[in-house]
Amino acid sequence: MQHSTAFLIVEAIGLQLAAMARQQGVLHLDNPALPLNLRYVDEKRDRAIFHLQAGDRLLGKPGQRDQRSVRILVGAAALTEKSRRDADALHFLARMAMRGDAWRAVVRAQVGQELAAGPAREVDIEGQLTAVTTEGAGFISAFEIEYQQPYPVA
Question: What is the pLDDT of residue 65?
């Protein structure tokens, strides 16, 4: 079974953020419902990094490939004595991960080839998505990655 390029990109970013969360000793949440309530997610941990796919749109159709853009939200939440400080530090790490190319290596390892995808560009976030957490503090950023989606010739 073949996966879409958008899925491979989002999955690779998720794996990268999960590894980062393990290093920091915090939760990683894949596609969580927002706003988060960390009290009900994990009783033992009070900080989290998360990501979710927030859209995929067609930009054009050159030949047998669609030119598309996937939108990914990354963020962090904390329910600690210094929630804002802790959430900001984790959010900064997540944003740094999005700016790098490490996710490309994860995709290459998964599918054995390079994807035709551009760099992650930070974009404005929709107003309704700014409520990250019900308690504590949270930060969220939106990124878009343009890519080409090939289709097999029938």
Answer: 82
3.40.640.10, 3.30.465.10, 3.30.2000.10, 3.10.20.310: CATH of 5-150: 3.30.2000.10
- What whole-number distance in Å separates Cα of residue 143 and Cα of residue 124? 8
Cβ neighbours, 10 Å, residue 7: 13
Token look-up 């859209």 returns 55
Where b means 16+ CB within 10 Å and e means fewer, 129-142 reads eeebbeebbbbbbb
Q: State the DSSP H helix or E strand holding residue 23, giving kind and residue range, or none if neither.
A: helix 5-24
Beta partners for residue 144, in sequence order: 71, 121
Q: Quick: pLDDT tens for 95-149.
A: 988 887 877 787 778 767 778 888 899 998 765 556 787 888 999 999 999 999 9
Q: What single DSSP character describes residue 117?
A: B
pLDDT (tens digit, 9 = 90+) per residue, 57-86?
Answer: 999 987 778 999 999 999 999 999 999 999
**Are the CB atoms for 31 and 72 separated by under 8 Å?**
no
Dihedrals phi, psi of 98, to nearest 5 degrees: -70, -30
Tell how many helices (H) and how many strands (E) occur in the chain: 4, 5
Reported pTM: 0.87
